[in-house]
Description:
Elements: E1 5-9, H1 14-25, E2 29-34, H2 37-46, E3 53-56, H3 63-76, E4 81-84, H4 99-127, E5 130-135, H5 148-168, E6 173-180, H6 186-192, H7 196-205, H8 212-218, H9 222-234, E7 243-246
Parallel strand pairs: 1-2, 1-4, 2-3, 4-5, 5-6, 6-7
Helix pairs in contact: 1-9, 3-4, 4-5
Amino acid sequence: MDGKVAIITGGSEGIGYEAARLLAKKGASVVLVARNVEKLKRAVEGLGSGDHSYISADLSDVAQATRIIDETVGRYSRVDYLVNSAGMFLEKPTEDMSVSELDRVLRLNFNATAACSLEAVKKMIKQGSGAIVNLSSLAAFRDYPDELAYRASKQAVNSFTQLLGDEMASKGVQVYAVAPGSVDTPLLRKALEPKRAELEAFFKEKGSPMTLDEYFERILSPKDVALKIVDIIENPQAYSERVVQMKSYEF
């Protein structure tokens, strides 16, 4: 991947950061995108040697997509890979959800992914090559209660990936999505930690007694998903489905 340039949204931690590390090790120059500047600085330092950088942006504002791509091309003259891993999770009964909460989830999980992809493909088509991997979720295929906004946003990502991928295939741009089950990310830990006692009682009731810490050890790691992302970038012909599902531990 020497000479290649990768943009990773949500790249300061979790799956995005692990994907960035793997791509950097393979020789790519990596641009990390997130909101928190201090986290971004630490993340770039963690990538080691190489011409890596960061862009601080609020991805819920779709106008930022143009800036991200333009700044990357302005510095590196190209963009070869885009990994859209920025996102948020909301677990809330549908009847208690506000329209603004729904909008917030859709803007970050879907609109940002679509906007960054659209801006990236314009550059990739001119180059004659490129690869985009979007982060979806198995939740899009499951009947999980109280996750309407999240599941809807990931279903939208799946449809967008399929449609854009079909259109771009003849133009040299590969577009895929990874849909993992539960992953031990800061996002998931933040959602589950407040419910530790409740969840551990639930595990016991279901015949799988374990602590929440043991649960985190059993599910997918961010690196597991990152390895799949990089494999898709390197070997897209090996995948017959545009949305690649990854099963995690289930009880």
